[in-house]
Amino acid sequence: MDDLKFGTRNKRGDWTPHATVQPAPIWQMPPQLKAVLHWLPHYFLPWNVIFAASAVAYWAWVIPPVEVLRSIQIGWVLWLYAVNAVCVFLFYGAFELHLYVLRRQGSRFKYNAKFPSEQKSKAFWFESQVIDSMLRSFLSGVTIWTGLEALMLWAYANGYAPWLSFADNPWTLALVALAVPIIHEVHFFLVHRLIHTPFLYKWVHSVHHNSVNPSPWSSLAMHPVEHLLYFGTAFYHLILPSNPIIMIYQMNFAGFGAIPGHVGFDKIEVGDDRLVDSHAYAHYLHHKYFEVNYGDALIPLDKWFGTWHDGSPEGEARMQARYRKRKEKLAARKAQLDAKGATE
Ligand SMILES: [Zn+2]
Ligand SMILES: [Zn+2]
């Protein structure tokens, strides 16, 4: 597949898409019915349907009966950890194997021409982005994910969370299930913005940003505090009229849904003539420039808060202007303080 029909490659070999990133078209004014209808299937396919189906499968085959969930027991919690870990290994591993180990599509549609395995860095454990990211994913990522999930299941089993049945409340639960990606987007934006404040960035979020050139395992390469905040989306179901299956969907959405944003390729080739959009560019730009695109543009929060970068030269200029303004502000404040110090 000729990726130069869809973008350009610079002399370093980095590929940039022609198309800019756009927030979901539901926000366009005046309303663009055709664009919304074209976009709508993407709200479900393929990822959200896969994550929702995974939650149903968990409930059917993985989660123990309610009587067991009433007390936290190491046996079932370990079993849940094992299932989460195996699923992460297989799901993340499939992307890693296809795109980064076997390199089946070379660097076609790859934003950064370099592969992390070729770049050793002291920022990572064992100087390897992949080993560091995998260890962080399994040691703290899946552990905290499982811990919060077990706690939520225990809360449901003991009547501490509102548990509606699908038979009695199909419409309410359908609405809550539909809102899962929206809850995730708003929560992720707020938490992400919070951990970009200087103190939390230095001690917590910088771990995730060690991956300047993200690859699939970067998805859950986070500090444990960030894991805790990230998987905290589950707690909304302590107050929402919901159901444990939807709570599991919310957690699987966070756990498995981080992959598309970190895949490092704009499109994944399927067979000889099909391309699947990864929708990774907005978050790739976040890893490249740090202070843009805190969200994933399902809701244009970054546009509203002035941190949106759509990948265009205009987006770049807006970002540079914002940086310049902040630098000037800091310099003015420093000059003011120095002047004050000199008069004292
Ligand atoms: Zn990231
Ligand atoms: Zn960040």
TrEMBL record:
It is found in: Membrane. PANTHER family: STEROL DESATURASE (PTHR11863). InterPro entries: Fatty_acid_hydroxylase, Sterol_Desaturase_Related. One of its GO terms (molecular function) is oxidoreductase activity. It comes from the Bacteria. It comes from Paracoccus litorisediminis. GO terms for cellular component: membrane. Residues 179-307 form the Fatty acid hydroxylase domain. It holds the Pfam family FA_hydroxylase. GO terms for biological process: lipid biosynthetic process. Keywords: Membrane, Transmembrane, Transmembrane helix. This is Sterol desaturase family protein. Its main location: membrane. The chain crosses the membrane at residues 43-64, 76-102, 138-157, 169-191.
